């Protein structure tokens, strides 16, 4: 009798401990991602004259912070894809996004993202933010025709799950990638990498 009570107590303690630990280490939940997405919207400019594509429209304009219909709302936002209660995809191609993305933009805290498409926007010849390396599950990154320029940050090689990378159409030699970083990128993602579109990118062999 006493023995089975002890076993019961032990199981109870283990259960409590497990849920406490789970809470402590629990990753980003949908309500967090909901506000991160909204902060992204607040921190990026829209410019309706900054596109050459007739299909373009500002997807984020319809994003609306509305707590009364719950955090799951953001999964219905234009361009947002969710799975198992997390934001896993963002397709904001052709969306009149304009100007540099600040390196502290909440976009880089969306750690469950697997797909990010920012193609066909105007990031005004800014550098690809180095924080992109933090989005470590990223498998598909599409920054084609988005007017990024300068050195591609070495942190891009931290994307170990990369399957597809498209950096085309940013202008002839506007984007530069040091060959050592190119090697790291290919090595670090060798298990997953399938497609690499780097035409016009200047891969610098001097280093
Ligand atoms: C980013 O968004 C947050 C939340 O909406 C806002 O408080 C902050 O001022 C914004 N920062 C910039 C640089 O726009
Ligand atoms: C919007 O984009 C156009 C074309 O790139 C540019 O000339 C204009 O200055 C931009 N407007 C603002 C407010 O930045
Ligand atoms: C917020 O969501 C509720 C419930 O879906 C809806 O009735 C209300 O119109 C929404 N408000 C805005 C500003 O979208
Ligand atoms: C985020 O970046 C903006 C613009 O670069 C800056 O004004 C702001 O102070 C930064 N916020 C933090 C917390 O670093
Ligand atoms: C990147 O996005 C553009 C615009 O949506 C699309 O045309 C292109 O095929 C995409 N690249 C890849 C590798 O999927
Ligand atoms: C990518 O590869 C380089 C060189 O092998 C290494 O220094 C770097 O730490 C790697 N990045 C990650 C996130 O593993």
UniProtKB/TrEMBL annotation:
The Leucine-rich repeat-containing N-terminal plant-type domain, residue ranges: 31-82
One Gene Ontology cellular component: membrane
Glycoprotein among keywords: yes
Membrane topology: Single-pass type I membrane protein
InterPro entries: LRR_dom_sf, LRR_N_plant-typ, RLP23-like
Leader sequence residues: 1-22
Ranges that cross the membrane: none
Chief location: membrane
Stored PANTHER family: DISEASE RESISTANCE LIKE PROTEIN (PTHR48061:SF12), LEUCINE-RICH REPEAT RECEPTOR PROTEIN KINASE EMS1-LIKE-RELATED (PTHR48061)
Keyword Transmembrane: yes
Coiled-coil ranges from the UniProt annotation: none
Keywords carried by this UniProt record: Glycoprotein, Leucine-rich repeat, Membrane, Repeat, Signal, Transmembrane, Transmembrane helix
The name this protein goes by in its record: Leucine-rich repeat-containing, plant-type, leucine-rich repeat domain superfamily
Location within or outside the cell: Membrane
């Amino acid at each position: 009798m006493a023995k089975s009570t002890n076993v019961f107590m032990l199981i109870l303690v283990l259960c409590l401990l497990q849920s406490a630990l789970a809470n402590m280490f629990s990753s980003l939940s949908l309500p967090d991602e909901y506000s991160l997405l909204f902060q992204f919207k607040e921190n990026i400019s829209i410019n309706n004259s900054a596109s050459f594509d007739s299909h373009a429209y500002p997807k984020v304009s319809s994003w609306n912070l509305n707590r009364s219909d719950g955090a799951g709302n953001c999964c219905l936002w234009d361009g947002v894809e969710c799975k198992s209660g997390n934001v896993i995809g963002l397709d904001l191609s052709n969306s009149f996004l304009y100007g540099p993305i600040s390196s502290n933009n909440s976009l880089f805290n969306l750690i469950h993202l697997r797909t990010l498409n920012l193609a066909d926007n105007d990031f005004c010849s800014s550098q690809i933010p180095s924080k992109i390396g933090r989005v470590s599950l990223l498998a598909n990154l599409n920054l084609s025709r988005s007017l990024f320029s300068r050195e591609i940050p070495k942190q891009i090689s931290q994307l170990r799950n990369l399957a597809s990378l498209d950096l085309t159409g940013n202008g002839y030699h506007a984007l530069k990638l040091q060959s050592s970083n190119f090697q790291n990128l290919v090595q670090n993602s060798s298990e997953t990498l399938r497609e690499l579109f780097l035409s016009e990118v200047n891969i610098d062999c001097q280093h």
